[in-house]
Amino acid sequence: xxxxxxxxxxMQNKIYILHHRFLEKKPSGHLSDFNWHENIExxxxxxxxxxxxxxxxxxxxxxxxxxxxxxxxxxxxxxxNTMEYYCLIVQSDFLxxxxxxxxxxxxxxxxxxxxxxxxxxxxVEETYKDSLYAKAICQAKILSFIVYLLRSHGIPSxxxxxxxxxxxxxxxxxxxxxxxxxxxxxLEEIAATAGLSKCHFAREFKKATHMTVTSYLNMIRCxxxxxxIAGQGYSVQEAAFACGFNTPSFFSxxxxxxxxxxxxxxxxxx
Length: 270
Fold this sequence. Notes:
41% of the residues lie in helices and 20% in strands. By secondary structure, the chain is of the alpha+beta class.
C-alpha cells in the first residue's frame, strides 16, 4: 500500500527545510490530517496559541514554545484563534552521518526553554541571510541545536527510544482510510486492516486521534470533495459520489458541518 500520510519529505538534496506558517481557526471537525515521518520536525511558536496532538496526547502551545516531533510520531495541530510558527524539518541521513541516529533517539515533545528558543531563532535569522558560508553556518547551528536538545531534553534510557506511542495498527488504519475513502468501507473493514476487533479498534482509534472513525472518514471525504469542486470543476453531486457519499443531501449537511460552508461555495473559498 502506498503510504500517503507517512511523509517521505522530498528534501531535494537539502539538509533541512524551514517553513514560516500561519494557522487560523477552522470549523469544528475541519482539522489538519494526521501525518508522521522519519525525519525529525521542530516547531517554534512565534505568536498566538494552539494545540498539538502528538501520539494521542494534546499539548497546549503558545508563543515562545519549541515543540519536537520525534521520528514517526503521529501528529497534527490546530488553534482556536491564530498561531504563527516556524517549522524545521531536518534530513535524518544528515544527522546519522554526523553521529546522531535521530530515528533511534527521542526527546521531550514540549520544550519551554529560553536557550532552545534562542538557538531556533538564531537558525531562522541565519537562514534568511545572504552571506558567505551561510550553508555551512546553518548546518553547524542545526547540529548544535539537536545536540543541545538531546542533552537537555532527551528521554531517559528506560523509555523505549525511537518508538511512536501510536500503535502501528492505527497508522495502518489511517493509511487504509486515505486510500479507500472514495468507496463504501465499513468499520469492520477498517478494524480488520488494523488487526483488531471492531470495538477494540474504535476505542484505540479514539484514544489515538481524539476523533471517532466516522468523523475522521467524513473529514477526509469532505476535504477531497472540496478539492474536486474548487479545483477540478466537479458539481456538488459528482463530488459527493466520487468521495463516498450516497446522497447529495447528506453530503451537503456533512460538508457544512466539517468545512463551515456549503459545497456550492467551495469555489469562492479557494
